[in-house]
Amino acid sequence: MLALEGKVALVTGGSRGIGRAVALELARRGAEVAVNYAHHAEAAQQVVAEIEALGRRAVALPADVGDAEQAAALVAAVLDACGRLDILVNNAGIVRDNLLLRMQESDWDAVLRVNLKGAFNTSKAAVRPMMRQHFGRIINISSVSGLMGQVGQANYAASKAGLIGLTKSMARELAARHITVNVVAPGFIMTDMTAALDESLRERLREFIPLGRFGTAEDVAGAVAFLASEEAAYITGVVLPVDGGLSM
Ligand code: NAP
Is residue 201 in a domain? Predict the structure, then answer.
């Protein structure tokens, strides 16, 4: 029997990049997966098709997680389609990089709304069914930016540091209910989000990474799948960097 057989997972922003890799890895380990997306329905459908090809059930569900009503409806749709919710991966995220002096209020609001409030919205909706099940795994995708800060990322780093506080508070509140809440903090990972970096900047960034390479979405997915597993039952409130040693 596969480790996550019988479990239902919701991956926010599961249509591309890290979320896509997480959705596929959870499915490989036996889970049924709800793949949330905001804009790219075709990409989400493709992930669903890949999961179905693995012999697992999957469903694509649109929702802007920054909107509390849509986030609640998303969780309700998962319960409707799959009957339960065991694993919530708060992965949806955006960047609106700029130096503080040039950063617009709208850039600050947009990033905090999706990256931080989005995780609050979905978690709030997911916790009640998890409490009824006496089981839950919530994994929030933060970033090394939230640990170290980053030039041009005041909004993004604040949202990702905020996720760590949210995680630790939830971990304390929900421990007695057998719900664990943890953070995975990726470093530089090759996805659409980092594709815009020019090659010379990439080369300079690589020099700061002890393992000497950018990570892959699969590197992150393995860590998330571990925290979702039975082997991680006694781990809660931790921040696990997956960054090639960048943040140590
Ligand atoms: P990505 O390739 O840009 O994908 C972002 C995903 O989030 C997409 O599936 C997108 O859906 C979804 N999304 C965006 N806004 C949303 C919203 N309002 N509601 C629901 N879904 C939304 O990003 P990524 O690189 O895979 O990053 C995934 C997560 O890892 C993010 O939280 C990011 O901050 C974090 N992270 C990434 C890196 C990195 O180097 N890539 C490093 C550290 C942390 P649509 O396609 O439908 O728009």
Answer: no
Residue 34 belongs to some domain of the structure: yes
Q: What is the CATH number of the domain that holds 74?
A: 3.40.50.720
Ligand 1 binding residues, C-beta < 6 A: 12-13, 15-19, 36-40, 43, 64-66, 91-94, 114, 141, 143, 186, 188-189, 191-194
- Mean pLDDT across 114-142: 98
pLDDT-derived band at 35, boundaries 50, 70, 90:
very high
25, part of any domain: yes
pLDDT at 46: 98
Number of domains in the chain: 1
| Substitution candidate for ligand 1 out of 191, 242, 246 with most atoms within 8 A of CB | 191
pLDDT band at 1 (very low <50, low <70, confident <90, very high): confident
> Which structural domain range is residue 25 located in?
8-189+221-237
Contact call for residues 40 and 65 (beta carbons, < 8 A): no
- Rounded Cα distance, 44 and 171, in Å: 30
